Amino acid sequence: MADFKVVGKPIPRLDGPPKVTGQARFLADRMRLDLPGAWVGGTVRSDVPYGRLKEIRFDEAFDWSRVAVVTAKDLPGPNFVHIVRDEYPILAEETVNYVTQAVALIAAPDAETLAAALAAVTLEIEPMTPVMTIDESLTKKSIIWGEDNVVDSYRVDGGDVARGFEEADLIVEGTYSTGLQEQIYLEPQGMGAIPHDDGTMEITGSIQCPYYVHNAVKTALGLDDARVRVVQTEVGGGFGGKEDYPSILGVRAAVLANKIKKPVVMIYDRTEDLHATPKRHPARIHHKTGVKRDGTITAMEIDIVMDAGAYTTLTMVILQRSVLHATGCYYTPTAQVRGRAVATNTPPTGAFRGFGAPQSIFAVERQMDKIADLLGMDPLDLRLKNTIKNGMRFPYKQVLESGVCAHDVLARAAELSGYREKRARYAREAAEAEARGDRYRRGIGISVALHGGGFTGAAEDTMGTTTRVAYRDGVFVLYTTSVDMGQGAATVLPQIAAEVLGVPIDNVRHPLPDTYECPNSGPTVASRSTMFIGRVLAQTCREIVRRLRDFVAELDDTDPAETTFEDGVFTVASGKKTSILEAADEYVKKFGALEETQKFENRGKSAWDPEKFEGDAYKGYGWIAVSLEVEVDMDTYEANPVHATVVAEVGRAINPVLASGQLEGGVLQGCGWSHIESVEVDDKGRYTASHMSEYLVPTFLDAPKWNVEMLEVPCEVGPFGAKGIGELPANGGAPAFLSAVQNATGVFAPYIPLTGEKLWMELEKLHGEKYATEDETQKGGASR
After folding, report:
1. 603 pLDDT above the threshold of 80
2. For 44-101, how does the pLDDT look when each residue is reduced to its tens digit (9 = 90+)?
3. For residue 513, is the peptide bond before it cis, meaning its omega torsion is within 30 degrees of 0?
4. Which of 542, 572, 599 is at the close of a domain?
5. Which band of pLDDT confidence, cut at 50, 70 and 90, is reported for residue 3?
6. Using CA atoms, how far apart are residues 102 and 505, in angstroms rounded to an integer?
């Protein structure tokens, strides 16, 4: 193993002390301390899911000179927020398409005046027939998008599935569904806009992607790049929820500030955040799988349908990832995958940790449990038999010659958790407990998952990820647009730089992103910060070292090729030693500044055909297995995780403590999604949760005891072999949880969340047919 000085060490979070002492400044802090005279902005929203906007009425009893109002006709530029497609309206104009859609904006000097103004606005909307569900959209109850309500679609053609089904001894079908999930970041959505006298619009707030916001605001206001500045505040959590929505909220704050020429801040309370912001896409996924009697998979046919809500937001790229992860960690000689996202008159769904992969992984893992049950196999044995290996081809035609670790993580998780013995014991004890009428039962389940690091296809090759490093008074300052939203980027990136530069971590600083200072490193999404931004940052630091090596050699009048660099010290041919900090000081004295900028370069082979939707989808994959034990209360029907064994292959753990925290948090988030995080859309188009007593999330009291182990198979793309792991653990928790509940109770649930009420209903049905007859057919027409 390489002898690293900083990488691989459990350095405490660099942003920890200011956050726990209250020195860190979030958006509300900045606006209160720096801009006490800022006006507050609010939104007039539709309470109808679909209708014609006939009139916006302003109560004459209110003094409208006290506030500023913006409607669609007042916008200074085009009426859309620049995201993936230019179709999400800043404000509704002729039609409203979902409950909580913004119709007008109001800015007021204080919160009390704003509340009074919002209450003085009424909307006249002529209702039309809404499309509220996936089924209603597919049956074209009403056409609300294009010709067929299909927002996006993708296909993977992985061979002749008809032949694969002919070779099968058993064909198993199942339909699986996943629900909405809310990010519940600690800090709700908030953005501020500050107009300056020179015509510059400064945007500040809680965001994941500074340049996304930059591009959206400059488009909406018709400004050039230099006239929009985005300054990041501390971010109180994101989980994908602050990828696209800050562009929407930032544009609205900017429109108000542009009108009144005063700073405007818009910060949601929890209810508005729950009702108006994007959530994880609900999905319905049908699997048809051909298998031999020994469990060997011969064919997979998968149909994915996602609910996009009323507008695209990020659905296009979320669906791509869902389709590409549909077959999970398994090799199938033939496969067909179809993915569609359909429009409904519900709030647009968007990014959430995992970005479409958790839905697909849940479905394929539950399908594997079902196949194992029908074959009379242990689900672990079925998985081990079919895991993809080095040299095998994914259905989208990517072949990984090395680094495929599905089998390794799965076998290790089973070994560490005592899975085989416990599964047999818990099944036996459950039968005995049922006979005795005991209250509690235990169960264990297992899952295996993968996650592609970085953007899909060739995007990482073309987006131009750029970083800058400058030397300032004994400190190397790292300028990137990687945002720390709790995942640890503000510590991990300095660790990478410190390792390359050979300096202590105290001599490296990573300030909050500011588009006037930071080049575009790309967004903080897609598990790409360590793997790709870290790679370019290491490249930039190596160029600093190279430049200083040449400088030191020149001072000594020696050949740079004979000058070595080790542990932060240059040694020239004469034997003279100069630390990198001394060299940097001398360089600045002579030239006035020391800084370097580098851009991502893909030196490896990569091929992706976007038209055929095939090729090298990702430059590296992380692998994870979760063995989860649950305890089920048969009186209250509550199921809680009590012990979790997590084994993940991460390439290189730059900071093992932070990496372990990511793995634990992601698995727990998946567990919450599987049984307690329940929010739906009611018949009036409203989300059913308005506050956190109605939308439950796991707390420390709900967390299991953890046993986390990381395997390291370095990836050639990431710095020091690191891969992205932020989203990987979100893929494994839910299927392992439901598998464990099945082991404890005998209930096979093809959907999440499996709330206590739903578990009770499933137990009531348990003595009937275990699986619907249409979900599996024996070859030759016999059914089961």
Report:
1. no
2. 999 999 999 999 999 999 999 999 999 999 999 999 999 999 999 999 999 999 999 9
3. no
4. 599
5. confident
6. 46
Answer yes or no: do 46 and 90 share one domain.
yes
Shared domain for 533 and 495, answered yes or no, is: yes
Q: How far apart are CA 438 and CA 449, in angstroms?
A: 34
β-sheet bridge partners, residue 514: 231
For residues 606 and 327, the model is more confident at 327
Asked whether residue 444 falls in the same domain as residue 481, the answer is no
This prediction's pTM: 0.96
| Sheet containing 564-566: order of strands | 564-566, 569-571, 577-579
The pLDDT value given to residue 563: 97
Which pLDDT score, from 0 to 100, does residue 35 have?
Answer: 87
Residue at token pair 């016999």: 782
Give tens-digit pLDDT for 675-686.
Answer: 999 999 999 999
Average pLDDT, the chain: 96
- Pairing relationship of beta strands 297-309 and 335-343 according to DSSP bridges: parallel
3-state secondary structure of 299: strand
Mean pLDDT of 404-429: 97
Q: Quick one: pLDDT at residue 639?
A: 97
Tally: H helices and E strands in the chain: 20, 30
Whole-angstrom distance, CA of residue 241 vs CA of residue 188 = 10
Residue ranges of E strands in 59-200:
68-70, 95-96, 102-108, 121-127, 150-158, 170-178, 190-195
> Contact at 8 Å (CB) between 532 and 459?
no
DSSP string, 145-175: STTTSEEEEEEEEES-HHHHHHT-SEEEEEE
| pLDDT for residue 545 | 98
Residue 515: which domain range? 459-599
**Cα dihedral across residues 180, 181, 183, 186: positive or negative:** positive
Q: Are 538 and 500 in contact (CB under 8 A)?
A: yes
- Residues in Cβ contact with 165 at an 8 Å cutoff, skipping those fewer than 6 apart: 171, 288, 290, 298, 299, 301
Using only the alpha carbons of the chain, give its radius of gyration. 27
Q: Which amino acid is at 64?
A: W
Pair (443, 468) in one structural domain: no
